[in-house]
Amino acid sequence: MDQGATAFAILAAILVLVPLLAIFAYLVIKGIGSVNLAFLTQTPKPPGEAGGGMANAIVGTGLILAIASVFGVPLGIGSGIYLAEYGRNRFGDFIRFTADVLNGVPSIVIGIAVYSLIVVRQKHFSAFSGGVALGIMMIPTIARATEEMLLMVPNVVREAAYGLGIPKWRTTLSISLRTASAGVITGCMLAFARVAGETAPLLFTAFGNQFWNLKLNQPTAALSLQVFTYAISPYDEWHKQAWAGALILIVMIVGAVAAVRLTTRGSLKGA
Amino acid sequence: MGVGIEVHGLNAWYGKNLALNSIDMSVPANHVTAVIGPSGCGKSTFVRCLNRMHETIPEAYAEGSVKVGEMDVYGSGSDPVEVRRRIGMVFQKPNPFPTMSIYGNVAAGLKLNGFRNRKQMDELVERSLRLAALWDEVKDNLHKKSGASLSGGQQQRLCIARALAVEPEVLLMDEPASALDPISTSKIEELIFQLKQHYTVVIVTHNMQQAARVAELTGFFLMGSLIEYDKTEKIFTTPADKRTEDYVTGRFG
Ligand SMILES: Nc1ncnc2c1ncn2[C@@H]1O[C@H](COP(=O)(O)OP(=O)(O)O)[C@@H](O)[C@H]1O
Ligand SMILES: [Mg+2]
């Protein structure tokens, strides 16, 4: 029995790897041929012309994700702290419910909402509005992960801090959140990876751009948008570049997650 | 130096349940005072009322008068955070901060209260670890090892050092050795004996031999009331109250 269960668990773990590796391998096969220096450093050429690249979209994705994180991470962690440390009441239940609903709202709906709230008012598409749309999508995941991780911090740890005359807010930030940090960071990375490839919420916000733009209030290219546009185009050259763009996007996400993991790994023995 | 504690008419509730019933007790400075009694009689509640930890539990509250030296613990202008800084506490189960180094644990109370002088902090950390009889065992790994990687007995001494580092006037200990092996227990008892030179110590214990070994004074609690409070020797040899006698001779509890 025991051996059977173990064998099944190992098999299941291997089966999980298969689709992931298959997707990655397929992307590499299809896309690697078009990844070259020009692809990484140049902006798109007009349709029909060979060459050109997605440099502006790579930078644009970085810019939009930075805005999303600046906006989504503090709000997500903040509301997670509220839910875990102060939210054992009706209002807390309401916030929890809202977060779960927000998590289920289709991403295109969030795009439309941000369009009418920000883009319509500012009268142009922008990197800022795209970042806000993705940031909103990050909040519920981060909030619930933060809440769960804080609830796992044993109460005796909080009591130890109170007993030293450390105020509650300080205890929450410097003791509880720190104790829960590994899980909270994992939650943030999950949320980040999930929104990094989103296309729909950017359609009416960041909008896309064939040229360089680093201004927050101007339409901005993003890899996911560029891949979408190129993939549905009639040009062979663009199809190849779409594969390459998708490959770069995956590499960027994996790279960002790995970088955060490496820099935040604990340095204590037996921690 | 330690200061004395004067308790008058102290009542404590958990919601609607009265857990302490009109306690009067006078704890002298620089002595070790033990609190004994059967499980559930209110020992923990009593010491947690002395530094206002009691009210951190939802719906728990206390009323009455507690004076620690000049400080009116339940006075109208009194700040519970300040009270807890001046009255240290050691808990039943060792509870080091799991993600912090040994040094980080001892310095936590200082750092998080805004103390910045690095050199003075090093000195306080060393002094506290020496007082807690842990210095020699950890001095080479202060920054490298986490508090959670120590043995149970070492963790508890680390928690004592952590409480001492903020230089409290009183140290409350709630069954500090009940989760430890006999060797660690005797180390902690020895330590308590040393600590009274500098601090007033109140220790909860359900182990009567332990009370007899470390404390000059002992209070016997039963069902939320202080039944008898006297010199330890008197409590264990010629108690005035029948219920105390029954308890210390092992007839119940
Ligand atoms: N967190 C709590 N909530 C409600 N009642 C409690 C709580 N802690 C203790 N009590 C009750 O208060 C009484 C005294 O408990 P306690 O002070 O922990 O006793 P002791 O430390 O002597 O074992 C007991 O009846 C216990 O059930
Ligand atoms: Mg107790």
Biggest sheet layout of chain B: 6 strands, mixed
Total strand segments of chain B = 10
| Strand percent estimate of chain A | under 5%
Q: What is the CATH superfamily of chain A?
A: MetI-like
CATH architecture of chain A, by name, is Orthogonal Bundle
Q: What distance separates the N and C termini of chain A?
A: 35 Å
The radius of gyration over CA of chain B amounts to 18 Å
Biggest interchain interface, per-side counts: A-B, 25 and 34 residues
- Residue share in helix of chain A: over 70%
Shape descriptor of chain B: globular
Mean pLDDT of chain B: 95
Note the run of SSEs of chain A as H and E.
Answer: HHHHHHHHHHHH
* Helix-strand makeup class of chain B: alpha/beta
Quote the distance from N terminus to C terminus of chain B: 36 Å
Overall 3D geometry of chain A? globular
What small-molecule ligands were found?
A: adenosine-5'-diphosphate, magnesium ion
Structural class of chain A: mainly alpha
DSSP E strands of chain A, number = 0
Q: Helix coverage percent of residues of chain B?
A: 25-40%
